[in-house]
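Re: the 283-residue chain
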Amino acid sequence: MATEQGQQPPPPEGQRAAVDGLTLAAVGVIATVLTGFIHEGLGHGLACVATGGAPRLLSSVSFLCDTDGLPSAAVRVVKAGGSLTNLLAAALFGGLLRTRRSAAPMTRYFLWLGMSMNVLQAGGYGMAASLFSFGDWALFIEGFAHPLLWRAAIFLVGAAISILGVRVAIRTLEPFVGTEPSERRRRAFMLPWIPYFVGGAVDCLAALRNPGGIEILLLSAAAASFGGNSLLLWLPMFMGKPRANAPASPPALGRDVAWLAAAVAAWVLLVAVLAPGVRLRQG
């Protein structure tokens, strides 16, 4: 079969590199649990401690911080801490993805997914606060003069972060999908869609154990996982034609028992510990 100069022919149909959906789902569970913990535990939690607040409860969908007696600026730092930490985590994952080129393909895929989920959730929180008037950033602007202008500004910042996140996610997904049209399309759907649906479902089912009930499930778990990561669903539509330097043969992403075991451990941690909540201090 003739090929353009400088390109390798795609592998025959029977020799295509493996893509194991179960392992992709496992990586999705781990990335979902980790992204939520980064937002709640590291983001709001560390901001609470740093500003002199009293940590009360950590769960998979919320962090309760007693901010009585703190100045309003400190309270706003706590509210902003979740999204800002997601942005920092996205930068860290992206940096590792760029520098760890010799890492195993599934490890690089995890870094790609961690980067994408963290940046898209950071942007999504800003847009949600502006459109629906709930969430961290809606609480952040409480008491400000001209709230509509603040909501518009936060929406624009959130949209800009989301657009940048989508562009980076598409560009860095290229090495995983190859150039052969049917295989490229198959992978472009599998790699973002499987972790989106599986991770979101796991997050929402775990939230049923939260004492807040159905309201917490809808406003926090579903909004953060299915809502915050929803732009993952659009990545295949924006992939377009392969870049000039795209690898013709994508890496194998086959069955990996270590990732499956890690996903089970993450699921147990989520359901048994984080979902019902960990009380950090009485009161």
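Residues 147-177 form the longest helix (31 residues).
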